[in-house]
Amino acid sequence: MEDSTFVQYYEFSITDHGGPGDPDAKSYDSSWNDRGVEPEWLVAADNMLMITSEFDGHRPRIRFEVWPSDPGPRHDAEVITTSFYVSSGSIAIDEMLTDTKNLAVELGPPKSNWNVRGHRTTLVPPDHFPEDADEELEAYLFQFWPGDPQAR
């Protein structure tokens, strides 16, 4: 499935699409502290992926793929692999500063752990893009497959 969002403040997030109030999900702060999250361009917490872009104020290409097992990384992009817990079994891009609703990506059963591999490809060198460019400066591919049920 393909989607997009408007990147503001160099960030966008992908969040659980319908699981607020899940007592099994840790808070963002607790989840990040427990994981020892390092500042990477893709970081995971329960019910959330936070993505840091190379650019501000643009619309990247975003593709989601759900696999039954690890599909293996592509070799033409920056790649980060991590895992996270999803309460509802579905996720969507969270429009942080607008009311736009994005399509949900159905991962699988609720209250499950998922692996995610993020691929980030810069389509225009950061120091050579036109000032008025606001589309397709980057492309992202997020591949999801079932994670270890005991991980967390």
TrEMBL record:
Protein's recorded name: Uncharacterized protein
Organism: Herbidospora solisilvae
